[in-house]
Amino acid sequence: MPEDKERTPAIHETLLSELGLHVLLVDSTGRIIYANPQAESALAAQPGGLRCLILDSLFSLRNPQWLCHEIRTSAAQDRWSGDAVLCRRNGTECWAHIQAFKAPRALGLNDSVMICFEDTTGSVELMSALMKRNEDLFQRNRELEVVNKVGRLLLEDGDLESRLAATLREAAKTIGVSCGIVCVKSRDGQRIDLRGVYGLDTAILATGFSMSIDDKSITAAVVRTGRPWVVEDMAAEPAAKRGLAARLGVASAFWVPMIVQDEAVGCMALGEKGARRSFGTEEVRLAQVLANSAASAVRTALLDEAVEVSHAYWQRTFDTISDPILVIDKSGRVLRANAAVASRLNTTTFSLLGEECERVVSGLDRNLISRVISSGCAQYLGRMEIGGHSCHIRACPLACPRGETAAVVVHAVPAAAERKLAA
């Protein structure tokens, strides 16, 4: 009998050491009675370093507390298969796929459980990385869908206020908030004007609400600094108490700047009325993406408004000149005429656009216009008539931005005025 007992360990050690698997043998008390070299290597243990350890000690706290007991109980009755996190002896952890069952009788170990495991850390980490990548792609696709929808709203016909209101509504629905406001810097950059609201009293828009760029409110601070601002409790934030959002009954909100070409042209605020709410980083980031998408449209609209104002100012200046003035292109058609020309012809300046120059100024044909363009210098073209009024006509080439002469400015000096000056 003593000789048989000495042979039994040798049998299982010889058989299991030659397997290509990581193997542990555990007795009925849950203590490890043998670990083959592959298992010792995988768990960063010295030869014989796992023997006599309790199996539970190899299981990470990330596993359910009952897992190790479940494995031993199920294996003793039939078998168990699944995944778990194991602790290496050097303090690190590894994912393992485990197969546990009764130890074969050939090993001569009664009431023992054989645990075979495979280190799957690389596969799990790869899968985690792929899942994270998929999450990132999903979030990016979601952002692109929303940005695309907002972009279509901004391209629709209508004034800036209506387009901003539609953008604000879509942003609020995407983030999942009940209200919002959008403010835009004035053309001179000295003030911030309210240009849209969602889920709030729209009567505030009719008041023409505006604030200085140096105002102490959160809105002005966000536009000045270009940084988001989150307030979970408006009542507890001194800078928010006096602001527009608080006065409109907003309980929690966050502000994001509308940035284009590294400049904040305004800001968007989204929030909740009534109950307070916390806002996560992803919500603020998505709102920032939407705000930046709207910023380009705001910049374009402001430039268009500036052009319209400049055009109107130029037209008023043009019309205040008492002498008839025309701009005629090289084909001999009227590009612009001031009010003095229109009054002499009993018509409007708009109706003169596109007319042939001979029908406006008797005796002025396209050949004379071509001669002035070719010469490249101002010329006196003689006495002609505009609506029966005799005038001295002078013409000067008008160069386009590329340097080419594209038109001629015609100045008509009334002959009667000349006589009065001479007298």
How would you characterize the overall build of this protein?
By secondary structure, the protein is α+β, with helices and mostly antiparallel strands. It has three domains: 2-119, 2-Layer Sandwich (Beta-Lactamase), CATH 3.30.450.20; 133-308, 2-Layer Sandwich (Beta-Lactamase); 319-422, 2-Layer Sandwich (Beta-Lactamase). It is 42% helix and 27% strand. The protein is built from 15 helices and 16 strands. A six-stranded antiparallel β-sheet has the order 8-7-6-11-10-9. The termini are far apart. The model is unreliable at 1-8 (pLDDT under 50).
Task: Provide key terms for this protein.
15 helices, Beta-Lactamase, 27% strand, 3 domains, six-stranded antiparallel sheet, 42% helix, alpha+beta, 423 residues
Topology:
Layout: H1 2-17, E1 22-26, E2 32-35, H2 37-42, H3 67-77, E3 79-87, E4 93-102, E5 113-119, H4 121-155, H5 160-175, E6 179-185, E7 191-198, H6 203-206, E8 210-212, H7 218-225, E9 229-231, H8 238-241, H9 244-247, E10 250-260, E11 263-273, H10 281-320, E12 325-329, E13 334-337, H11 339-344, H12 349-352, H13 357-360, H14 366-375, E14 379-386, E15 389-399, E16 405-414, H15 415-422
Antiparallel strand pairs: 1-2, 1-5, 3-4, 4-5, 6-7, 6-11, 7-8, 9-10, 10-11, 12-13, 12-16, 14-15, 15-16
